Queue: 4 jobs
Job 1
Amino acid sequence: MMLTLADCGELELIARLRPYCHRELMGDDAAVLSLPLGEQLIVSTDVLVEGVHFSLGMTDTPVTMTPQDVGWRSLAANLSDLAAMGALPLGLTVGLAAPRNCPVAMIESIYQGMATCAQAYGTSIVGGDTCRSSVLSLSITVLGSAPPERIIYRDRAQVGDVIVVTGVHGASRAGLECLLSPQWASTVPAALQQAWIQAHQRPRPRLDIVHWLRQQVPPLRLAGIDSSDGLAAAVLQICQASGVGAVLWADQIPIVDDGDHQQALNWALYGGEDFELVLCLSPELAQDLCTAAGDRAAIVGEIIPEKRVHLKLNGELLPVQVNQLFQHF
Amino acid sequence: MMLTLADCGELELIARLRPYCHRELMGDDAAVLSLPLGEQLIVSTDVLVEGVHFSLGMTDTPVTMTPQDVGWRSLAANLSDLAAMGALPLGLTVGLAAPRNCPVAMIESIYQGMATCAQAYGTSIVGGDTCRSSVLSLSITVLGSAPPERIIYRDRAQVGDVIVVTGVHGASRAGLECLLSPQWASTVPAALQQAWIQAHQRPRPRLDIVHWLRQQVPPLRLAGIDSSDGLAAAVLQICQASGVGAVLWADQIPIVDDGDHQQALNWALYGGEDFELVLCLSPELAQDLCTAAGDRAAIVGEIIPEKRVHLKLNGELLPVQVNQLFQHF
């Protein structure tokens, strides 16, 4: 018989989830953490709802991930927000709401996925809460820190900066397509399929870039954000916050090789959930950053005074617009 | 026509909620906060679900609060966790999930209640997330700080300590009874009714005690917790964590004066949500603490070596048990 939350109760559930959490920090009214001397606290919260942000078969949405993937991916998205601020993680809390008929094994698997991701990036679950609801949801709050002079804000882009992306864009969207359309997937080489599905199910927050940036003396002047909402939205948000514009060079954007260039470019611009960093900095420093970020990193455009974002494609300047941005309701 | 979240969209909702949040800290991937020099970070997360922890008429549960009350009370419960750790607040994040048919005005009122409570205790909303769900829920993460030597843990109670409660217990439960049973309420003087309903709808986290404790040199040796789950559960949890037992003196517990002594005592022990502090410390220091905490604060028992919790009532020792503790599923 499958054990559900109703059979198990909250005390038993918490006992089962404890192995996935930092042992010494659990068990009081709150967790106690130490910040590295002189660093500031960076905090970000994401809410993820079954049937909206992920699917485990409790609603009509097609299932494209295991519960472990859901745990990994939910936390990776949050850690990516820390990376976008130039911060390294201190710990995280998880607020779980779940239906009474939810299998306990599913919840354990989600926590296992989160714990695996946390461990991979040198952090852990330090607290949280569990409660009953009619829908499964996770609210993750990540805590990180950074020296004040190394925090990355999105409003610091300057005219003359170039735009660097730390890796390929559109891979997560391509991975989703492989999972939703097996027929389409059958036209794609197996190794590519696997890489894209991995990008979708197990995205990697670019905390390695933060480690590299910490070693640069003096600190680089940067503006930045992550590309969780797609490359177009990332550049639009930097430009809006900085009071500038940008030209994106279509032929320089690292896209997936799916045999349909237009589709791949659309996925890169609007697909989202690649969790790469989009950074604006002076051209002289950009090449070093690309080298550090890996072989798909690239300089993909420049910051201009005119407050618009254009895509330069085959010699033409096309406007970039994101009408449906953030319409989560 | 009533504006719902579906009419409004996420961008518009966020713009409407912005006035209730810390202006300068919003708008990047994460919020940046500073800790007082040498202090540690204290973090606690609570999840609150409509129809489970509060009711605004979207489920069958009777409505006993306005949306503003729900906001105040949800945050107050979280701030009480900080007080129980000896911490003062730095800021909080709010993860909101809400149905598309939810009135925007209701959400604004909840945030207004949270912002009012935050302001009353010298803090503010510094970040968060909003998204669609089929049920209304709030996930609040409070961030606080304390000097390491002033953090209050629950596992530090010692045999010979007395148990202090910082105020009356059972008032929140009595307030709920007034709201659910107007007939019963009609037998209670209006001033008492009002005070109890206030205790239920607008509980006050005891951060004033933390301020007083900060002034004590050297720091008091304390064990402590808040009484969110009732006085009995609070004492049981301290005893369990500290490997000791306790005797609670029934005639010393500050209870509500509702004309039914047995019921008032039950509400004090098991009613919960009074959000007072329950502190264990040496008898010599306890009286000063009571004086600082107010005229309903009292010494209500003592810590004993035998690992059981007893209630001393009319000369008899009765066992205190909390079977249904934490059964939230």
Note: The CA atoms of residues 98 and 136 of chain A lie 4 Å apart.
Job 2
Amino acid sequence: MACLYVIEQGAEVTKQGNRIIVRKFGTELQSVPAFKVEQLILMGNIQITSQAIKFLLTEGIDTVFLTINGKYRGRLVSSFSKNIDLRRKQFKKLEEAAFVLDLAKKFVWGKLANYRVLLRRYQKEVQKEAVEKAIHSLRRLIEKVADAPDLDSLRGIEGSGSAIYFSALGQLFKNPEFRFEKRTRRPPRDPVNVLLSFGYTLLGNTIQSYIDLSGLDPYLGALHSPDYGRPSLALDLMEEFRPILVDTAVLRVVNTKAITMKDFYVPEDAPSLPEEGEIEDLTPEDYPILLTYEGTKKWITMYEKRLQELTFYPITEQRLSYRQICEQQVRLLIRHLKEEDIYQPFVLRM
Amino acid sequence: MACLYVIEQGAEVTKQGNRIIVRKFGTELQSVPAFKVEQLILMGNIQITSQAIKFLLTEGIDTVFLTINGKYRGRLVSSFSKNIDLRRKQFKKLEEAAFVLDLAKKFVWGKLANYRVLLRRYQKEVQKEAVEKAIHSLRRLIEKVADAPDLDSLRGIEGSGSAIYFSALGQLFKNPEFRFEKRTRRPPRDPVNVLLSFGYTLLGNTIQSYIDLSGLDPYLGALHSPDYGRPSLALDLMEEFRPILVDTAVLRVVNTKAITMKDFYVPEDAPSLPEEGEIEDLTPEDYPILLTYEGTKKWITMYEKRLQELTFYPITEQRLSYRQICEQQVRLLIRHLKEEDIYQPFVLRM
């Protein structure tokens, strides 16, 4: 286990010998040896003892505080990342316009290529004309990436690609209760969008923990321009993994009925569908629909399960888990910044 | 109150309304409105509730975990500092050799000038020849700072200045039990050195909290070269404040007998004086002499008292507390990095 989630409200995290223990009302819920845990995610109202805090800081286990709905609240750090030499390289290279454009193209290329692979894999089964068309449109867009003269036109290509992809994605769901027409966020407006948003938050945590541990500054990226409070580098590195890790897992939980409409509820004070993107700082009351506690547990389990699946990683020519591949891609980016290697997005084989 | 220390072992920090409460065995020890707290320092075995953690993260109160001996363990952060534009400026300017040398000179100049002011102030009273000589030697060294051709010779001047200053400092103590011959660290070998080391740790926390809040990267400085794990910028900014805030407070607690030899103890397993600088990762057993719990409380109180004293701050032409001046100097450095103003060290008037 690389990531330990604690979501049982009112539970307490303690330390005993070299183990992390989760208890509630005196009952032991989880007991994990520290060496198996890279990241501890505490969701909502979870107590933690000072001995556990000391232990986590000493062992260098990334500890993240989320709300029960998966919103980021903060983390425990032993210090600002110590690797200052790496950050000097990062700030030098990511101020060079040509380097930035080239790297941004790799992220967009990887995302669109994985969008296309996902559609093609599912198309074998569903055989829908709209999906076939989307696959072709994506191929044409992917060919344009290399020639994008600047970041703005590159972001235009990425936007068109996402629009094409999400309009086709709805065709791949087999449970008619889960209609998906378009991507909506802030707040997500239907069950599929709720799963997507939560999944991207989880993916963001996965990527950001490897960025933090590496010593890179998560706020300076290439495709996502630097902006106050935006973890641009984490957003960049997430792109190629979104369809592979989150969207694939959403399709699975819906199509296998691992998650059903019973795992959602409409909050009492739910507003009449707010405009998309209108609300910057969401509270649960702003969500028209939410995952139940059981649904949250299921979704986290399915996401983590996907991360633990093995696949072939061409750079090291090994079978690795997707989680390990996330870490490897951060390392590859570091070698790219140091000009020791060339970054290549991780693209699924068809 | 800007900084709330919790050192009562086994105490618990909770949140109630907008107040931070410290309790032990059900008894309320401290109760402070959150708006009065900029920084919360938890030393040793202090429990903290998840509600308090949530509250501290939301309110942006810097929360630092120290060992009972004042060693840094970690902190709670709502994110990596968000102000990426400022860090881009910092990395750009602090890669320019001429800019770095000029800024480093200001830090050294400020430190040596304040060393000299401190010696002169006390010399009025003690009238010792060795001190008089040190004051003159420091003046000659201070004149050399501007002409230093590179960082290495500048660091040489700083080293000579510190040696001259510390050899004179011993003349200023009035309590014969507190003999001070030279500065020793890792571990500090006598009571004065214990107070100095602990004081510099506290000062480091004060400065670093303003650096962290500002969004600067504490690991990239000018006088202190970037090195893995070294908070160079915090060390730079501390220089001018060391004699003013720490050394002055040490002289006071010793000369007024606010702290006496009864506030120290020799740990049971104390080694026979280890070589200075030999031990990188100190544990209490490596210290030949330590502050007692009561001594720790007294020393923190005296340090904080010094920080709250008011003095004239020439840049804004106001009377400010020394704590506010620390913050102002971080802000002045930011304007210097943005080329909106020129950094000047804060130097005490004679």
Note: Chain B touches chain A through 44 residues (CB under 8 Å).
Job 3
Amino acid sequence: MERNSTNYILTRHTYCFCRQKNTNIRLTLPVVCFVWQIAMIILFGVFIRYDEESNTHWVETKAHNNITSDIENDFYFRYPSFQDVHVMIFVGFGFLMTFLKRYSFGAVGFNFLIASFGLQWALLMQGWFHSLDPQTGKIFIGIESLINADFCVAGCLIAYGAVLGKVSPVQLLVMTLFGVTLFAVEEYIILNLLHARDAGGSMVIHTFGGYYGLAISWVLYRPNLHQSKRMQGSVYHSDTFAMIGTLFLWMFWPSFNSAITDHGDGQHRAVINTYLGLASTVLTTVAISSLSQKTGKLDMVHIQNSTLAGGVALGTAAEFMISPYGALIVGFFCGIISTMGYIFISPFLEKTLKIQDTCGIHNLHAMPGVIGGIVGAITAAAASESVYGKQGLINTFDFTGDFKDRTVLTQGGYQAAGMCVSIVFGVVGGAIVGSILKLPIWGDPADENCFDDEVYWEVREPMVMHWHGTLCPEFWSNTNLLKGPQRSALNPHYVQL
Amino acid sequence: MERNSTNYILTRHTYCFCRQKNTNIRLTLPVVCFVWQIAMIILFGVFIRYDEESNTHWVETKAHNNITSDIENDFYFRYPSFQDVHVMIFVGFGFLMTFLKRYSFGAVGFNFLIASFGLQWALLMQGWFHSLDPQTGKIFIGIESLINADFCVAGCLIAYGAVLGKVSPVQLLVMTLFGVTLFAVEEYIILNLLHARDAGGSMVIHTFGGYYGLAISWVLYRPNLHQSKRMQGSVYHSDTFAMIGTLFLWMFWPSFNSAITDHGDGQHRAVINTYLGLASTVLTTVAISSLSQKTGKLDMVHIQNSTLAGGVALGTAAEFMISPYGALIVGFFCGIISTMGYIFISPFLEKTLKIQDTCGIHNLHAMPGVIGGIVGAITAAAASESVYGKQGLINTFDFTGDFKDRTVLTQGGYQAAGMCVSIVFGVVGGAIVGSILKLPIWGDPADENCFDDEVYWEVREPMVMHWHGTLCPEFWSNTNLLKGPQRSALNPHYVQL
Amino acid sequence: MERNSTNYILTRHTYCFCRQKNTNIRLTLPVVCFVWQIAMIILFGVFIRYDEESNTHWVETKAHNNITSDIENDFYFRYPSFQDVHVMIFVGFGFLMTFLKRYSFGAVGFNFLIASFGLQWALLMQGWFHSLDPQTGKIFIGIESLINADFCVAGCLIAYGAVLGKVSPVQLLVMTLFGVTLFAVEEYIILNLLHARDAGGSMVIHTFGGYYGLAISWVLYRPNLHQSKRMQGSVYHSDTFAMIGTLFLWMFWPSFNSAITDHGDGQHRAVINTYLGLASTVLTTVAISSLSQKTGKLDMVHIQNSTLAGGVALGTAAEFMISPYGALIVGFFCGIISTMGYIFISPFLEKTLKIQDTCGIHNLHAMPGVIGGIVGAITAAAASESVYGKQGLINTFDFTGDFKDRTVLTQGGYQAAGMCVSIVFGVVGGAIVGSILKLPIWGDPADENCFDDEVYWEVREPMVMHWHGTLCPEFWSNTNLLKGPQRSALNPHYVQL
């Protein structure tokens, strides 16, 4: 493209040159990708094997376990949910972040990159912590491992939402490397040591991921971010693209919360609860969004994000007997709190606490995640044999082995403890990782180039200059206006065609 | 955004002020959302419980029924289809309606809102009519209830298509409240009293929903709708977005028609028939669309809509032994009729019958639904033991209990009777509900503001004025032209960037 | 639309008139659609019946085979994968091709048309070759037949990628008719006669489809294609739309490679391998893409396409015990090779071999397909009883019946032979079909109208003229410039609004 042959483009490049950071990632990005991928291959070669349901010895396993039909393979219990979760990770998270007018490539593309790396590293980290076979020293993977790897990646993608548009892909890969590592450890503490239940990850995924991202964003605070203000809004079609992400997350959240719950009633119940909770959230989100504007107009930011809060908050309790109206109540309050978060808390976080949260993950993941942890603890503590049945209670909370004497009250306490662990891991881990990402070697963009795909992507299409919300007339009569400092005096808006 | 600082925008707002209706929904919308959601919570608390396959007593149910494996839980028979149906409701219907150049937020967003409300109300209404346990006074829900709730919502979303862009979200919620109520009653009459079969809802969903929407649109007729003509077309990208809706509806329609059919061969056959019928429809739609233009060009309106008619028309007969070529024949004629509907019948409806049908639901749902009802009646009447087998015939038409002596001919008659019930409920119900919606309290837009997201949504992006299909040169040389009555003389087209 | 009332549009039409080919398809397209669809109905009536799992006699089949539960119906093993494959065919392939700035309707719409026709013809062709019952002379279809029909269509859609924007819909239908025919024959030779394994179709689908398309494109070479250069690039939103296609292909590829593998461990293992291979491909694609630009920027063309190469290359070996790290290695190299293909090989093909490959199917399908065939041959030849188990080896390679004495080495040889068959069928078949498509009766566009939806679609939206990458100033000051030959001197770019 001959983009450089126009005054406008040349001018812009010249103009930016003096302030521009070095965003050349031609060395770092390929090196990181190659080295890490080769490391993955070696570590997989050493550690990862097919489990007994996915290797060719299944025919003998079946005979040995008196399994009469292939349909008993765990694959058929979990594959539909797995694919839904997979869509949430790649299309859901990816497109949800395309709302910015000129950062769709980065939203979808970097989401794609870090999820693809993260899931490999997650299989290893989760394998070492959860399922390393002591005899063979191997990790045996099956469909449930893939779901857990996707879950682990979700935590890092949530964190990406806080720093969207302000970091380089290399920083994102580093953030994912440490995020997955921290995730596997906190998950091990919460699920295995504390024996808390958290099938949909209100605590281990959303609370951890939310605070991890917020802490990183706090360390990477940019006081001059207003210099890229022209790029921060959405345009009409970018908001429509974002709704693709919202809807796929919303529709498939029942699969997310039920993907690794118990076979049979466990998966069935988790789906019903999540379905209902999310429906309830939509109505209260719309209500608060409409209340927040003088004429009752709705704000796409709320519809795109807060409608999902009910799913987050049911991550822990969806598999419990929270009852259908209980799920509706959780969704009801999450819609209100999350939307009010966008209206009141996000500006407060930015101004007072110096946390710049591009996607508002505090309102969509961190707060609803904490609510979900609390709801889970209360629901667990309130469980009773009369409601669950004797065996049902044991199955639901897995009161077997070392934990067979645990009472529901104790369980509630451990659930609450798990909540705290995930917050601590998120905040402390995020602060440390943020410090690493602050090193000036990662190729992050200058303040005035944030939220702009042109920094890391070949963008083939010209942008048209706009002035005060409409095409700038001076542009046509006198392109010289665009040379030099007058440009900022005009406060132009660039919107895409 | 500083949109108000341009002449154009100021002018536009001033200009419109005198005629504008009060579209302020800051009071009504939140009140309706809150009150209805709280009512849902209370009613769910009183009535709705998990069924035996989704509560923790499943372990005892299994033992009691000699079920050996969790995979026998109805969840595993229906969950993949349920998720497909869920995608059709939220992404399919939502994005199908984004074809208008400036109503994508309303299409996807209001669809999201009314579906989320409707499915809750549907669980209650359908529960009261179909599955209220007389002993406990409770409604027990499982995965099949969720599918039925989504189906019920589909009827209302079809009706939304007729009034798209011309009503307020409050009107839509009212329309959904009554729509779901009427749906549950007509469904009860058709399926339970008449004992007609209609697994994919040609009659109960599409015919009812279609006529319900058309009748409402007839009552709400706007003689001056041409005042918002500039907003009624599509733009390039809005047509592409609409194809997302079309394709997800088309691809998942086999799941729609098979979601609640009999386990085993019932679901299997319904998928095959729908898959084939839809494929056939695409070819005849393309043929007629090409024939309708002087140079054989295709029209996206036809491709987006008429390609789906075959799925609608197989809603009743898909589970029958209509045979693969039978499904192809149904699809063949539906593609022709539906496309001709867009070319000839829609203009006739608008001019002569004063029915303004934004999405052409008459061609996509009402007509093909009626065809589907007739096909179902004929196929049922022509069923024979030689084709179905003795037990197969009983299973397919559920000739058990009170209906065990019914013949296939009688069944065909009752199918036809069901057809009439759905039309009557749609037309009469729609006329009544339309009268309610005509009250001047719902915040509906003025004739010249129809099909414009700016009425109910915060839209952050400027529009550029176009004149005679290209950017208006006068705009740049003399912005004063835009002040006052000259504007309408110019007949400007607003198209989004 | 009053598009003709502006100088610009009038000029453009006048200007093009002299060179324009006759693209009127008002006769040919409807005739082809009608005749072929009627032929399908007749042939289906003669040949196609429900198989024993999808007809009402299933109740007797079950009893006869001592099947205790409906969940044993093949439908429940394969339906979730089928729906994923269906999404890949219609949304995946369709949207992947929307990257061109002004060919989204053609990409999604023609993809829709030819897939809908192709799957019907595929059911017949594959039925005659693979499953014609010799006693009854009928083809019995079930869910696996539908998957195979979708697979067959995939081969033709791959070929469409090479000629995207340069052919008429009639040519595409002809290409699909012959493509499906050739596919069924080569598939019969490879899978039945040579008894090669190729569940995900590295050979039968991707290699064949790739070379079929390339050979057609070679025959249809247009030396003056540069005349439509202004239409060949992407714009910002068209690249975002294309990512919808990319991601749905990427996410559902595990379902593609596992859809028709053995029940149980076969499907389970194929999913794990494909999931891992694809993840690995993303990292190396990003690495090479970044390396290829001076400043390390990423190119959407690579991200949209090369990230999928790992799935193609695991089409044969995914069901084997290639082991998780083996899958990573395959993905690793495919990402590198495919991306380098876009950088180095595509320009070479166009300049030296005169093959114009719009979507780069050589890099995404042909090369990775060949790699997949080789990997499959090697993995098969290296299989051993110690890894697979005695029965596992027999099951995996289906060493039963006539092939029960085959060794793994022989099997490796036959796999390699299958590879060659698919290349030969693709190249020779494509050359012949290309010659047929060269006849001047199909309504293909002139060189300067390629990649433009206006040729075959009613496009309602104006285009704005751009010059040197930004809005052309002369356009506003002097529209006369656009009349006549000066237009080409200006080398204008048309970009959509």
Note: Chain B has one domain: 24-444.
Job 4
Amino acid sequence: MFEQLALIGCGLMGGSFALALRRAGLVKRIVGYSKSPSTTERARQLGVIDVEAPSALLAVSGADIVLLAVPVAATESTLKAIRHLVRRDMLVMDVGSTKRDVVEAARRALREHVGTFVPCHPITGKEKAGVEHADPDLYRDRQVIITPIERTLVSQLQRAEQVWAAVGSRVLKMSPDAHDAAYATVSHLPHVLAFAMMNSVLGQAQADQFLSLAGPGFRDFTRIAASDPAVWRDIVVANRSEVLNQSRQFREALARFEALIESADAPAVEALIRQASEARARWRMGNVQED
Amino acid sequence: MFEQLALIGCGLMGGSFALALRRAGLVKRIVGYSKSPSTTERARQLGVIDVEAPSALLAVSGADIVLLAVPVAATESTLKAIRHLVRRDMLVMDVGSTKRDVVEAARRALREHVGTFVPCHPITGKEKAGVEHADPDLYRDRQVIITPIERTLVSQLQRAEQVWAAVGSRVLKMSPDAHDAAYATVSHLPHVLAFAMMNSVLGQAQADQFLSLAGPGFRDFTRIAASDPAVWRDIVVANRSEVLNQSRQFREALARFEALIESADAPAVEALIRQASEARARWRMGNVQED
């Protein structure tokens, strides 16, 4: 049981964590801070937080658990803003979608206290940003990747695992490098492709007509294109070497496909589609039967 | 009210049409034919069709409405197989995702009877092929694009519109060329990108690990990659000039994105994402509020 959660960033991810932690009966008091005061106020009006703090530092005052839920490029400045109140027995976590840059930011900002910081990436989300879409079930039955470093305190790592389990998540541990390579492949690049798909359509004179004709395939394929611009700007820039590496491999796969289409080589086109189709039909999210 | 539906191709699309037409009380008898006798038998066992026909021609014998639900490249041979029984008062429709090639196939195969053929493309589907996934609601609240040619009989066009309305669809009419350009953009290319994304991941040594870590964004983005290989082989080959044109425009949009990521130009990256995100957040399928 925690006395006080300091929620830094009262958006979808942070707000959902606050609701889930409270529902699990794990926290007495939630003090929130967002860069925009109107966001913090809305979070309080919605009952997501109990108290609005005027700064990240004041949110952390009296807290024994801290969640950073800000765009990843804001990690370092946020940790620097709270470092004077970070104690060895305080659990500090983030929810950023990149981990190498977050870990480096934590090393620089927290120095001797870096061991209290547990880098986390919950594999969940919605394409509707904002605290008004916060959902206590957002983390339920989802994977959370934890990427400890050699200096991470075992005691804090264990507490982090317990907290995520309490909100219904399954914890996996891996290195920051392995994390960033994997998520460039299965998350960051797909987002870039969905953004580029929308940009490509929007750049055409008949964009409005084309979009009015699109159906359920387009709806699902482009759902992630509606993601939060500030969040995804930081992710693709922070993880750019892996994202560009994956984009190069994707372009090679696309070029092979195009060449076969151009030569109208139906059996070879079918073979490529069949490889993709059978693998996707077999795939289950988190190896769990769902869709 | 129709006496007999000849269903040629007893898969997901055809089976769903049969179920919907029967539920609407519009047909007395459904005779089905599929290239694979085991498919036709399963359709009868599931109650999707009443009678199994040993050939397309025999399915059409006694029919006053015919639905072709076969991969688009099979359109011409199928129409040739039934042409001796096609009459002026028989409504013949297809459900193919390309229309220019289908219309040309119909001209060649049906000649003087081409006016009885109404080319249709329902904007619906599932990524689970086969008659066992047939669903009488598949066409409900979906758009159906009809692409008549100058020789299409007005009487047949009107009957086709009535049939689609009776199963809950909204009909839109356009030219085959306009259709193929639009659907290359919002359907065929997204499928190719989703296939290529899967191919790209599968070509990497860590494919299994990466796929086990993928979350809901990947799930939605790649859902269409599980589509039927024979159906999609025909679509991308039939519409290859438009698909390749759209792929080129997409690659240009992706290259612009990559260049900004590479230079870590965060504001410009955010601007591109924001354009995509705002457009996608505003978009509603068929201009109807849904997701």
Note: Residues 2-174 of chain B form a domain with the Rossmann fold fold (CATH 3.40.50.720).
